[in-house]
Amino acid sequence: MTDARRQIPRTDMLLADPRLVAAAERIGYQLVKTAVAAAQQAARDGTIAPESIVDTVVRSLPERATSLRPVVNATGILVHTNLGRAPLSSAAIEAIVGAAGVTDVEFDLGAGQRARRGRSAVEALADAVPTAEAAHVVNNNAAALLLVALALAGDGREIVISRGELVEIGDGFRIPELLASTGAVLREVGATNRTRLADYADVIGENTAFILKVHPSNFIVSGFTREVGVRELAGLGVPVVADIGSGLLKPHPLLPDEPDATTSLAEGATLVTASGDKLLGGPQAGLMLGKTELVERLRRHPAARALRVDKLTLAALEATLRGPLPPVRAMLATPTRDLLARAEKIAAELRNAGIAATSVESEAAVGGGGAPGVRLPSAAVSLPPEYAAKLRKTSRPIVGRTERNQCLLDLFAVDPEQDADLVRAVREAG
Ligand SMILES: *Cc1c(COP(=O)(O)O)cnc(C)c1O
Questions:
Q1: To test ligand 1's pocket by mutation, which of 79, 137, 141 has the most ligand atoms within 8 angstroms of CB?
Q2: I need a labelling partner for 396 at 20 to 30 A (CA). Which of 84, 150, 180, 315 fits?
């Protein structure tokens, strides 16, 4: 054994170092032990000095016991599924922390007995949509569609849907296949670009469970097109389920073509389904709003138990609905001149640090979460292209977008409070 190897402290001695004891309390013993073993090996290899093992371990330890990292979304895509969709408001984050321990999610503290699970979140949802009689929440919009198909058509009855609305949501998942997996029969009507009321009327019969109207939230069909709205479909005398996708509860002035729950129900939809983590700006959830009788039937269906949301989701959803404007909504409302001013300030700070940064006008988009084709005026910091990869590897990873051989950091989906992180990360990468 060489001298250097003999000097390497034993694992139990290293783990007794107060800094590592504290780290183990924070992130768990196993992660610390693995980092100690790696540092001991580095010392054996001669890449670090034996006396710097503890320092090396402390520096290499993750901040948290999860490997999911906070990332800055500088892609210009507001609702980015790969980056976890909507960032939560601080009110929603606090609500999650509050509910994380033991909580009264399903308990009435006044009466001292069991209560309806998540009742306050469900009430907040129903309150936000005045045209809804009742509401229910499941894991995501796909789960909402699954539940309604199972409950109304799982016995082999028909779901009538336009051929223009057979949507692939993403990652290979398709709504028609999801529905068919329940045992329901899909009755496709119309053509890809055009469907008329008569196309629906022609196939409706005894075996019809409901008409499904799916919002094409991630593509647009333009040119010679025609579709049938909820109001006309509601006149056909069978239930109409409207999957509005993005979770707008009321009309949004910037997104006039995006359907919303209040209007769809006013137009006669029996049930509306939507996601919680797109334009609503909340946690992943499937929102179901509509007539009391149907909502109760869905809530009582055996499969509802398998699609049940957890207490953290309910807490965050209620805070999103009752609390301050969530980030996604605030970002949508940011004036372009504010974005340009931020881009100019960041670019100037970076130029002072010797980095070739400029501020440029840019175009952002809502993303797969809704409003396809809508271009949102935005502003970005332009950097040389090699920054794109480097910025993803900084201590606060930044995901930008590469366009015309530049790395663009689009500010549309960046919280202004993250501007300083952005400057720091670019300097670290530079
Ligand atoms: C996003 C989307 C879905 C899927 O919603 P999840 O909450 O991701 O399950 C379904 N339908 C439409 C129209 C969508 O836009």
A1: 141
A2: 315
Residue 245 Cα, ligand 1 centroid: separation in angstroms? Answer: 5
- Tell me, what's the pLDDT at 63? 86
Q: How many domains does the chain have?
A: 3
- Assess whether 229 and 152 both reside in one domain: yes
Question: 51 lies in which domain range?
Answer: 4-60
- CB-CB contact of 81 with 169 (8 Å): no
pLDDT in tens, 43-102: 999 999 999 999 999 999 988 899 899 999 999 999 999 999 999 999 999 999 999 999
Q: Are residues 302 and 339 in the same domain?
A: no
* Whether residue 382 sits in one domain with residue 285: no
Q: pLDDT for 305-328, tens place per residue?
A: 999 999 999 999 999 999 999 999
Residues 301-334 as b or e (16 or more Cβ within 10 Å = b): bebbeebebebbbbbbbbbbbbbeebbbbebbeb
Ligand 1, CB within 6 Å, residue ranges? 140-142, 167, 169, 214-215, 217, 243, 245-246, 275, 286
Distance 390 CA to ligand 1 centre (A): 32
Residue 142 C-alpha to ligand 1 middle, in angstroms? 6
- Reduced to 3 states (helix: H, G, I; strand: E, B; else coil), residue 193 is coil
To the question of pTM greater than 0.90 for the whole model, the response is yes
